[in-house]
Amino acid sequence: MSAPSVCFVGLGYIGLPTAVVMANHGMQVIGFDINADNVEKINRGEVTILEPGLETELRKALDSGRFRATTTPVSADAYIIAVPTPFNDDHSVDMKFILSAAEAIAPVLDGDQLVVLESTSPPLTTRRMADYLLELRPDLFRDGSPGANENPGKTLYFAHCPERILPGKAMEELRSNDRIIGGASPEATRRASEIYASFCHGELLATDDRTAEMAKLTENSFRDVNIAFANELSRIAASLDIDVWELIDLANHHPRVNILQPGPGVGGHCIAVDPWFIVASAPTEAQLIRTAREVNNAKPQWVLGKILDAIEHIDNPTIALLGLAFKADIDDLRESPAVEISKAVATAVSHGSIAVVEPNINKLPPQLASFDHVALVELSAIPAHTDVLVLLVDHEQFRATTAKQLAPNAVVIDTRGVWR
Ligand code: SAJ
Known about the structure:
This is UDP-N-acetyl-D-glucosamine 6-dehydrogenase. The chain is α/β, with parallel strands linked by helices. Helix content is 40%, strand content 15%.
């Protein structure tokens, strides 16, 4: 029997790496995306995101003939939906991209197919997606429904299989991480397991769709709460004139203590977002998870306060801000606390000059582009007379130097503890 064919919906941070890895493990994969420029680039072997190893794997997948990108969805044995899931003002999920994905594939469905939602979503989202798809295609049936039993060839199988890869290590973690396979029915779980087993060497953990949705949110909320603890400690330690990095290092020598690292705040489209889905789903119960979000969200403002304190008596300060990405060695600026802090500094310090260094991008993001006194510069071009040097992201290039080398007389605000 030949391997099932798979059509990805969404070739972003998750869809593209997963699609090419699947193709390189023998699956026949089509990647559908609405962004025609990206589709063209991908088909030329050019990556649209910075992810170590992705370009090589993309070229291999294209050369094998088992992968191509398209702007037109096609019929396949399985669909994997990997589109963004932003939240509304009340932190409930904004389904618009999931619903458009359903609209895109509805006309090409024939039945006897699996539809997997990979996008991180609150409990019941897979079910809502299935309801919508079946409204669009009333001639098809959900597995387990009376209509499906009477029309086996017209059945759709639904599952939630959340992605868990760490940006920056995606190509490795896609293959090695354990995977949660949350089928809306046992047959959906079986079909989804077959697909993920083609490239995933980790354990495939079978459950239902709702538990799978919650498990993903739980993992990221656990991390958010732990980072909030570290961020709160950093503020407490600063107020007591204690080095927080040494403090955490010492505490972590205890066999049952493992505190994460403080930083300028929590960014990215996962940890800064997903806990809110739990809060919105269970607002009364989710006390600690909500507070952790608030603690982490408040950290950029605290860093801004430190920067403003440092320039209080300087007329026309020169400030260097190192890093804009949401974490080290990636180019992803989504929900980045470094961008938020840089914008706040640019707004508050209109009388100075601000050099921003972000080695992984080549132009300032929209949030900073309109400020005349803000320039994107190379690390080597930081003015030697810089008054305040702020390290916002622990990129490799910054770790390889010292504050003294960069700006000998500057006040240093190292939000990541790199130059201790
Ligand atoms: N951060 C800290 N201190 C730390 C660790 C992280 O301040 O000790 C900050 C980072 O600088 C960044 C943010 O937290 O701003 C998030 O970074 P991250 O490396 O913790 O996580 P992500 O968002 O890159 O990836 C997470 C991962 N989830 C977990 O580790 C539980 C990843 O496995 C998920 O697949 C991903 O979210 C996702 O897509 O949900």
